[in-house]
């Protein structure tokens, strides 16, 4: 009997060992995959050097080497009968596959780190060192930022700008005003000629020839405008069609009047006088309507862009700012109805082709919309980021690497970075470039500088820099990667959220957390969620004496990399950014002491002053891992 029980217990233990074996193997593999960085001495990622067994990223690499090939074979997949059920087998396989791909991604991230480190700190045998820093002072005179450094470049700029300026002349107020002036002069001269010519007599020849020249000029002017705007576009307007027919009719009558004497033709000048008077009236009305429309468009664009610094020179009025002499921030280049209140994409193309022809590259950070890259000669690269959110650590390094590569090609090259409004996501990426190119050392300095450059204090006092706490936090992460960790990408750190503490919760919704719901997003997918009012996978403990709640989680999976925490409320809490009550981003590699404490000003949405009637001064969130 005892033997049977002993045998049964042995079988139970064996089954437990089989069930736990994948987890044990995963632990063993994690031990093998301790933090890895590239050798500082190696300029190519051919040798990987494991760090000593500690939690810091600043340790000196050990001399033992591990090949790149071995690195990719240290994390095998698991198959076979070790899984008690197909469902668990599939789930575990998905987890292992995700971690395997993440390891590969981190490998290329580390490769990119060595590349960036070599670009900032080139080897001693290089003859020349490329200076990526732009001019940071005296930037209010934007027209000087586009000047060429050589005489040939200046001549090329002038020559290439002539067609653009002529096209602008054909489509702006100057052309209409000049046409109105000539037509008014034409009518005045015709009036004088009719007064001084006896009734029934023909006008003197010099008057006839002059009027014919006027009509010929008007016809050529219309033809030139139709050529510049395109026949289809120009003749889509009924007014333009009527204008052309009027000019052709007057021109035909003038030709008949000059070359043929037919009884009754002496009255033709009076008929043309009426026609020219009608055309003059139409032109003046079109000019006033067009001018009013442009004023209205400018007012709308100004209202949308608020007090962001705009470029208002050389006939342009664009939501566009020179952050340095080779870095431009702007709002989304739009077409169609949206161009009515944002930067018209054709105007942006004209500006860039005039100021930086063949020397600019666009970085589009919008995830919600895009445009045809052929507008900008296919020099467009996308780094999609959701509005009011952050780029991943890997995307930040990819962006910096791409900018380095572009800037290295020519000393006159510039980058143009935009999201939708040209402020949050744009400022985040520009600030990390300012740090990468060593124009600033700290995140605080770069963020303050971008805010000053993007804000026009003459139009308002609203801050137009990076204001979302998570975006500022990621700029700080990048500064740590470059300055503290010497361009080493922090290795993946697996963490599990054990509990969340919310301080000063009274006044937030029901004041006890029962109306809140949390969502944990890692690697761009939701991995955990729970309602605080339910005890299914979390327990809520209220501490009324200290005005806080503690939420303990159960079954929350391990998370790593870029993580987003979102809080929703069923109460009437304002939903500002991201359609939730409040949220924040962090990266697990930068968590110290298994704890993350974020004050009100470090949380997205509560940081805004208009929510402080709900989120009091001591409101904060703390994560315990």
UniProtKB/TrEMBL annotation:
Domain Phosphatase tensin-type: start-end pairs: 309-485
GO cellular component terms, A-Z: cell projection; membrane
One Gene Ontology molecular-function label: phosphatase activity
Membrane topology according to the record: Multi-pass membrane protein
Subcellular location: Cell projection; Membrane
Transmembrane segment boundaries: 177-195, 207-228, 240-262
Domain C2 tensin-type: 492-625
Pfam family, one: Tc-R-P
Chief location of this protein within or outside the cell: other
InterPro entries the UniProt entry points to: C2_domain_sf, Dual-spec_lipid-protein_phosph, Ion_trans_dom, Prot-tyrosine_phosphatase-like, PTP_VSP_TPTE, Tensin_C2-dom, Tensin_phosphatase, Tyr_Pase_AS
Domain of life: Eukaryota
UniProt keyword terms in alphabetical order: Cell projection, Hydrolase, Membrane, Transmembrane, Transmembrane helix
Region ranges (Disordered): 1-26
Biased composition (Basic and acidic residues): 1-11
Assigned protein family: Belongs to the PTEN phosphatase protein family.
Protein name: Phosphatidylinositol 3,4,5-trisphosphate 3-phosphatase TPTE2-like
């Amino acid at each position: 009997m005892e033997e049977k029980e002993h045998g049964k217990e042995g079988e139970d233990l064996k089954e437990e060992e089989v069930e736990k074996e994948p987890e044990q193997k995963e632990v063993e593999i994690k031990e093998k995959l301790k933090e890895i960085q590239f050798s500082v001495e190696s300029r190519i990622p051919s040798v990987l050097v494991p760090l000593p067994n500690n939690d810091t990223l600043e340790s000196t690499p050990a001399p033992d080497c591990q090949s790149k090939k071995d690195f990719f074979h240290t994390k095998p997949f698991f198959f076979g009968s070790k899984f008690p059920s197909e469902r668990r087998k599939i789930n575990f396989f998905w987890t292992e596959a995700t971690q395997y791909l993440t390891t590969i991604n981190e490998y290329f991230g580390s490769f990119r780190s060595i590349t960036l480190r070599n670009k900032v700190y080139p080897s001693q045998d290089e003859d020349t060192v490329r200076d990526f820093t732009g001019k940071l002072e005296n930037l209010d005179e934007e027209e000087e930022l586009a000047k060429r450094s050589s005489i040939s470049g200046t001549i090329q700029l002038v020559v290439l700008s002539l067609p653009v300026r002529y096209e602008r002349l054909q489509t702006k107020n100057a052309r209409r005003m000049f046409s109105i002036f000539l037509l008014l002069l034409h009518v005045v001269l015709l009036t004088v000629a009719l007064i001084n010519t006896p009734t029934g007599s023909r006008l003197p020849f010099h008057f006839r020839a002059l009027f014919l020249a006027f009509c010929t000029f008007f016809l050529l002017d219309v033809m030139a405008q139709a050529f510049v705007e395109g026949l289809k576009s120009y003749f889509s307007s009924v007014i333009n069609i009527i204008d052309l027919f009027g000019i052709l009719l007057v021109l035909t009558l003038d030709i008949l009047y000059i070359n043929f004497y037919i009884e009754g033709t002496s009255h033709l000048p009076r008929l043309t006088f009426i026609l020219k008077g009608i055309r003059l009236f139409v032109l003046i009305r079109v000019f006033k309507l067009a001018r009013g429309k442009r004023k209205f468009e400018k007012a709308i664009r100004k209202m949308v862009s608020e007090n962001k610094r705009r470029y208002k020179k050389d006939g342009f009025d664009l939501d566009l700012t020179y952050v340095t002499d080779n870095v431009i921030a702007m709002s989304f280049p739009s077409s169609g109805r949206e161009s009515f209140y944002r930067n018209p994409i054709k105007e942006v193309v004209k500006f860039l082709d005039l100021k930086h022809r063949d020397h600019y590259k666009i970085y589009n950070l919008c995830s919600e919309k895009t445009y045809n890259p052929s507008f900008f000669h296919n020099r467009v690269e996308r780094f999609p980021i959701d509005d009011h959110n952050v780029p991943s650590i890997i995307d930040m390094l990819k962006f910096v690497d791409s900018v380095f590569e572009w800037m290295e090609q020519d000393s006159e090259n510039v980058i143009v970075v935009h999201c939708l409004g040209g402020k949050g996501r744009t400022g985040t990426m520009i600030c990390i470039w300012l740090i990468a190119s060593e124009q600033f050392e700290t995140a605080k300095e770069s963020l303050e500088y971008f805010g000053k450059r993007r804000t026009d204090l003459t139009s308002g006092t609203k801050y137009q820099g990076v204001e979302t706490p998570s975006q500022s936090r990621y700029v700080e992460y990048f500064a740590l990667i470059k300055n503290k960790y010497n361009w080493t990408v922090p290795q993946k750190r697996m963490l599990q959220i054990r509990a969340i503490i919310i301080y000063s919760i009274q006044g937030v919704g029901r004041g006890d957390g029962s109306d809140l719901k949390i969502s944990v997003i890692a690697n761009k997918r939701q991995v955990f969620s729970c309602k605080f009012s339910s005890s299914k996978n979390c327990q809520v403990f209220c501490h009324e004496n200290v005005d806080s709640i503690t939420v303990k989680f159960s079954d929350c999976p391990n998370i790593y990399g870029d993580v987003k925490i979102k809080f929703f409320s069923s109460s009437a809490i304002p939903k500002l950014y991201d359609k939730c009550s409040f949220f924040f981003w962090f990266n697990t590699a930068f968590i110290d002491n298994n704890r993350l404490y974020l004050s009100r000003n470090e949380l997205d949405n509560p940081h805004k002053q208009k929510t402080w009637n709900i989120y009091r001064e001591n409101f904060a969130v703390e994560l315990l891992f």
